[in-house]
Every structure is written in structure tokens, then in C-alpha cells.
Amino acid sequence: MIETRNLTKTFKHGNIETHVLKGIDFRAESGEFIAIMGRSGAGKSTFLYQMSLLDVPTSGEIVIDGEHTHAMNQAKRARFRLFRCGYVFQDYALLPELSAIENVALPLLMQNLNKTKAFSRAYEALEKVGLGHRLENIPSNLSGGEQQRVSVARAFAHRPKILFADEPTANLDNESSALVMNIFRELHREGQTIIMVTHEEQYARMAGKIAKIDDGRIISVTNNG
Amino acid sequence: MFPRFTLNLRIGFFLATRQIRRTSPWTTVLIISVMVLTFLNLVVVSGMLVGLVQGIGNATRKEYTSDIIISTLDNKKYIEESANITSLLGTIPEIDSLSRRYVEGAILEANYASRKENEKPNTANVQIFGIDPADEDAVTGLAAHIIDGSYLSSGDYDQIILGNHLLTQYILIEDPNLATLDNVGVGTKIRISVANTVREVTIKGIMESKVDLRSRNAFMIDTQFRNMIGRNDRNVDAIAVLLKKGADPVAVRDKLIRDGVTAFAKVQTYDDAQPKFVKDVVKTFNILGTVFGSIGIVVSSITIFIVIFINAITRRKFIGILKAIGIRGQAIEISYIFQSIFYAVIGSSLGLVLVYSSLVPFFLSHPIDFPFSDGILVAPPKETFIRMGLLVLSTVVAGFIPARMIVRKNTLNSILGRN
């Protein structure tokens, strides 16, 4: 369902070139929950950004649902992200002036759903993450764990093909981290494809597969029991 | 294409309303205050400049021409058939009152009794108006302009009212081209030479006028003055006509023209009779006002540009997030355009209310006392709305450019704060 072929990413700073991804071949099937692990600077987040079309690789191919994404222009990539991808960022990435329900409803409105339908779907998503009582709170009035749960609700409310999560528990305490990971597990059970970058072993074990990256290459892909 | 734009409009509006609603009230107040001041700068500066000149026109109308002025044809010495014209004027219901004026050039001489043989006579050229004091006061309110002594009454033979610019004591800066009378005041006897007649009269009052021309005129009662100039047929040189409140001077002028008055006299509204230089000055001040206004628009555009640019720069991460979750760049740009429109429209509307509910009425009742005019604030609604439209338009452009600059940046770099 998502496949990368010989994916590379090189950053240039003046004359200095840093090769962060050095030819990654990777495949995730529909409905899989894959954790990407690796030490700091291994290239795991960079890999996630390329796969999730937030960045453009230096070379190689990314095929999602049979579509070759390297041929897409910016507008098409944006449309692809809107309809097919969901994102959870390490620092929640909520819009500070929107309430919890507005944050979740925004991508749905952009999908041209009418306001009633968009807000009803946003409400369902927030109920699912246990925040049905915090709909009108703006992010600054929510705890870190609650903000991340809003972010997760925003990521799956529009029923994306793939949910990408970049270190979703890195800023959270144990209790909040467990809550977020339980939501991921629940979504996975319902058939949601999830690709998550983490450096926490205990949460990686909740995924079906663990892909380990080191020095810009995938060094192992293992199935969790 | 069109449904996509409509969707972007909808999302842009959604984002803009939330951002405005939840932005700091102080920021909102500050931006709106800048817009109000810019609007005032745009409307009031040019309005005061034009008002200054319009004040000259208003003063000329009030103190000299009145609503309609009927005057001697260029090739005639006086208005022929003055009596018939006066009768015709009496039949027009819109006319409130009129003042028939005999006008003749004269030389005033002072200090002749004490003048030594080798001394230059102290003279001044003047136009003397022979008037019915009550009629002239009804039309131009001349009595109220007396600053020393008293106004004429119908039996005041050998009495004269002088405009203050004929007297040296009232001239602040001496003009070698304008001769004035020295050491004269109320009660002083002066000599008049007019139409081969020399007569000694007493100064009964001194008048002051905002109309420079009027300040160098002199006034005597018509019954004596017409004898002095030999106008025994009672044909006058000018008739100033005051209309009833609400009457249209153009309509009355046109009626007089249709009735054939122009065969014997020039018929002009106060506007027609305005000297060309006043009209030129109005045009010039209008241009100056537009120039100042344009500078105001540029300043406001730069202000809004900076405000939106700082806003967009500090929100760069969130703009990146919006793009990451699939919100189109155009929708984000539109959200900034809506914010600019909001600030510009609210600021301009408050400015409009301030101009029409406070400033215009205030300056009408308390005009600025310039030596040559009562300065008022002129703000014709049509021009004001054009300026408001320009302000909104320039603000929209100034809001759009920085938003576009930030939106075009790489999505991931924006989210991660990389340059």
C-alpha cells in the first residue's frame, strides 16, 4: 500500500552535503501498524516526512496506493495529504486560536463537508479520544496529553488511508502516553494503517512491526509477537 | 475552479474569524486605531485644506455676493432697467430679500487739514457702495461686521463706513501697492472725490470682513451717494439677492435668465461669481489633499504590511501545520485578506462616524478663524467613500503580500522553524 524504492535525502548547507537517507526500500501493507525506531540522527523522522509527503526526497520513489507521488505538483500533494494522510506531531501542532472541535473539524471542512457534518464527525473523533467534554477549549486550556489526543482526533477524523505519527509520546508523561498509545492500538484494531516514529521500546512493541533505521538505512524489520 | 475558490473563501473566512476573535484585544484596538487615524488623515487633512478655501467662498457668499448677484454688463456703466428688474425680483417667491447697490470708484483723502504744502496727500483708492442700510444688513449682515463705531441708518448724510483694510492701524504688514489712511478713526473727517464731486464726510464705523475685497470697500447711504454720482435715474450697479432657506440659486438664476434679465445685467449664482483664483486655489488644494491622502494610504499600507508580516512570521509554524494537514495556500492567504478587510472596514467605519457625527458638525459650528476665511471641514460623501474604498483596497494588498510570502515557504521548514 505504501512503498519506497531507493529513497534518498541529502541536505546541502553551502558546500557541505549531508546524506540523511541513503537508499531506503520499505513497504507497509494496508492496516499495518509499524513503528520506526533508531537512535537520534539516524534519519527516522526524515524518512517519515518523505513518506508522508511533507518533504520531497532527493531521489527514489514513493508509491502510495499505486500512485507515484514524485510526479505530483504541490497542489496535488496537498490534496493527497488532505484526503489520504493524517498527522500526529511530537509537539501536537494544534492551531492556538481554534477550539478543540474546530481543530479537528478544519480538515473536514477543507474536504468540503458541510459545517454540520464536519463538526459532527469532529465530535465523534473527540468522543473517541475521551475529550467529548472539552470541545470548546482552546489548546492553551488543555493539558499536553489532552492536546495530543486532540491532535490524534484531528489525524483520524477524516478517515485517512495512513496515519503518520512523529514521536507522539515524546512530550507526554507516562499516563498520557499510555492513553495516546491505547488510542493508536484501538484505531489499528479498526483497520487503520499507522506508521509511527518512536524511540520508546515499550510503545514500539505495541505496533505489529518494528523497522529499525541506522545511518540512513533500514537495518531490520521485525514482526512483534 | 470556481467551487474550489468558494471553498477556499469559506475556509479563509473560518480561519480569519477565529483569529480575529481570539487575538489579543489590545492588538485589535491598536490596529483599528491605526486604521481610524489613517482614515482621518486621508479625509480630514484634505477636507481641511479644501474647507479653508471653501471658507473663502462661503464668506464671499455670506458677506458680499449673497446667493445671487446681478451686476452691470461689461460694456455698460450700470444696470439698465434696474427698476423693472427689481419689480421682477419682487414676484419670485424664493427670494427673501435684496440689496440694491450703487458702486463707484473714489479717492479718499485724510489729514488734508494738517497737510503741509510739500507733503504728499494721504489718499487711498476705494470702491464706495451706496446702500440702503437696512436692506444691505438683511442680505449680508453688514451691521454685525462693525468693529468700531456704529452702523449706518437711513438718514446718515455725510457719514461713511470704512473697511478696516483702508486704515493703516489695521494693517499688520504694509503693502506699498495698497495705500491706506493714517491716523483716522471713528469721528474723523475725511474727503471723498467721486465723479467730479468732492465732499467731506465723517467716519461713522469701521467694518471688518473675511473677504479681502470687502475690507477695502466703503459704504454710504444710497440716497446721498446716487446724487453724488449723478445717478438720478436710480439705475443701480449691482443687486445682491438672498434666497429663502432651501431655495436653489441655480433654479432662480435660470428663471431670471429665461425672463430676459441678461439683456440688461449679468446674473450669477454665488458659485458663478467666485473669482477664478478661488476656483484655482480650490483645485490646487484638492490636489494637495489628494497628495497628502496618498501619502496616508502608503503609510497605512506599510503599517498593515508590517502588522500582517509580523503576524504571519510569528505564525509561520502554524501556517506550515495548516499546509501539512491539507489546507490550501490560497485559503490561508484569503484568511489574511479577510483580516485586513476587517481591520480596514472597522477602522474606516469608525472614522466615518467620527467625521460625520463629530468633526464636520464641530467645524461647522466652530470654524477655524483664519484671517481670510472661516475654515471648515469639507468631506463630500462620494469622495469620502472613494477614499475609504482606496484605503480598504490598499490594506487588502498590504495584507495579502506578506501572507503570500510566508505561505510560499517550504511546509516542513515552516513547521520545524528551519530557514
From TrEMBL, chain A:
Recorded GO molecular functions are: ATP binding; ATP hydrolysis activity; transmembrane transporter activity
Q: Does the keyword Zinc apply?
A: no
PROSITE patterns hit by this protein: ABC_TRANSPORTER_1, ABC_TRANSPORTER_2
Enumerate the spans annotated as ABC transporter domain.
2-224
Q: Where would you find the membrane-spanning parts of this chain?
A: none
SUPFAM superfamilies in UniProt: P-loop containing nucleoside triphosphate hydrolases
Does the record carry Cell inner membrane as a key word? no
Q: Which domain of life is it from?
A: Bacteria
Q: Which UniProt keywords apply?
A: ATP-binding, Nucleotide-binding, Transport
Name any GO cellular component annotation: membrane protein complex
Alphabetized PANTHER family for the sequence: ABC TRANSPORTER ATP-BINDING PROTEIN MG467-RELATED (PTHR42798:SF2), LIPOPROTEIN-RELEASING SYSTEM ATP-BINDING PROTEIN LOLD (PTHR42798)
Which protein family is it in?
Belongs to the ABC transporter superfamily.
Q: What is this protein called?
A: ABC transporter
Please report the organism this UniProt entry assigns to the protein.
Answer: Candidatus Nomurabacteria bacterium CG1_02_47_685
What phylogenetic lineage does the species belong to?
A: Bacteria, Candidatus Nomuraibacteriota
From TrEMBL, chain B:
Q: Name one GO cellular component term.
A: plasma membrane protein complex
ABC3 transporter permease C-terminal domain location: 291-410
Q: What is its main location?
A: membrane
Task: Give any single GO term for biological process.
Answer: lipoprotein localization to outer membrane
Domain MacB-like periplasmic core, which positions?
Answer: 48-256
* Transmembrane segments annotated in the record for this chain: 28-53, 287-313, 334-364, 384-403
Membrane topology per the entry is: Multi-pass membrane protein
Query: According to its UniProt record, what is one Pfam family this protein matches?
Result: FtsX
Superkingdom, natural source? Bacteria
The answer on whether this UniProt entry bears the keyword Transmembrane helix reads yes
**Where does it live in the cell?**
Cell membrane
Q: Supply the alphabetized keyword list.
A: Cell membrane, Membrane, Transmembrane, Transmembrane helix
Question: Could you say which protein family the record assigns here?
Answer: Belongs to the ABC-4 integral membrane protein family. LolC/E subfamily.
This chain belongs to the protein called Uncharacterized protein
| Protein species of origin | Candidatus Nomurabacteria bacterium CG1_02_47_685
Recall the taxonomic lineage recorded for the source organism: Bacteria, Candidatus Nomuraibacteriota
